[in-house]
Amino acid sequence: MLKSKLALMAAALLCSGCSQAGSVVGESPAALALPNKIDVVFNHNATSRYRSPLTGAWRNGDDLEQWLIAAIDAANEEVLVAVQELSLPRIAQALIAAQQRGIRVAVVLENNYRQAWSEQRPSRLNQRERQRWHQLNRLADSDRNGTTTADEAFQGDAVALLQAANIPLIDDTEDGSSGSGLMHHKFLVIDQMTVITGSANLTSSGLHGDAGRPSSRGNVNHLLRINSPELALLFRQEFTQMWGDGPGGKQDSRFGLQKGKGSMQTVQVGDIRVDVLFSPHPRRDSNHGLNLLAERLKAAKKSLDMALFVFSAQQLTNVLREEIKRGIEIRLVADPGFASRPFSEVLDLLGVSLPDHTCKVEAGNQPLGQALKGVGTPRLARGDKLHHKFAVIDNKTVVTGSFNWSPSAAHTNDETLLAIHSPQLAKHFAREMDRLWESAELGITPHIQRKLERQKIRCGDGVMRR
User: Are 417 and 262 in contact (CB under 8 A)?
Assistant: First the structure.
């Protein structure tokens, strides 16, 4: 014990001239307090650990699946679910158990994920769908013997379980159409009191990782839980528009642009202001989400931190251009796979443009004259994506939700966009931003440079689309 104390004293003396505060190796970061009535979890959180259901090994992160199951298990009256994709059988089992307790359960999915995967034939699927089928089939192999039996497939198929239990379930074709742009919501409303929302789809890839890839940790995601009957009412109203009279019956469900075109609404959660907007809106409607984002970015006085999966809105790049002129400190981390696509605004911020496969440059493309230094892509395991859609403004306001920073999110998809004015909550998102920033490759990465060089040889400078 005495030797240990002497060692710590010696370390302190050695670091007395350091410019940064020292810390004991292996010491956990200090816990951050949460605002009253609001909780947040990150599946790559470096300050917590859980056992991966894929490998059984301990890994860094919050267990978002178990966190969701606990919330469903605590329901007393009603659980409403609107998510793009639900393929986790344990979540399905929790919803079934809730219904068996006499709780009303209703589920809305995106039509591409409405069919039970165990009933699909891989030979009839496109390449992406076939890859998903093989992933889910592998996850369903519960005894890990390399063969998925019919019973294992059923028990591992969340949608099949919900159907067999007669859980009411619809998708965005319930209105008689072929579907909205995307039913991209990711929210639950519990007991008309609690809203759970964020960036995560309810899939293994969205929370834990990919089957057969031990290094995978899942797409980088977060979820919020907000206890507020006023906020729950707004989300319940959005759900009700989509639900209509439920499965079958009248085609009175409303998705996409068929929904009522609401403006931003504000509620107080204790002393915290929460702004909420549900999309989509016609382009001519000034209430659309890109305008709301632009207003929030323009309000910055000191700093903007952004962690984005999709960033393809030229309007927001134009706003950031002005923020740079005002001296706002900007950091942006983007998904490595998306950052190098021809329509990515990450390229604009890096001062370059990339012709597409037809050698055309996006119409209205306006790269910065000088690359923004605060742009990077984090290093992630193969197959994992940075799936956040958040910004932290002046370390006071968090912008988040299912809303990618794209015209599709604003004008086509069913989405949620939130602005939460809480410095205390902002500290949690700022810490996540710092974690991603530590591993980020800044500027034009070798991957982006190779793509630029290949397209330069193939296309020259490209031809602007008209």
Answer: no
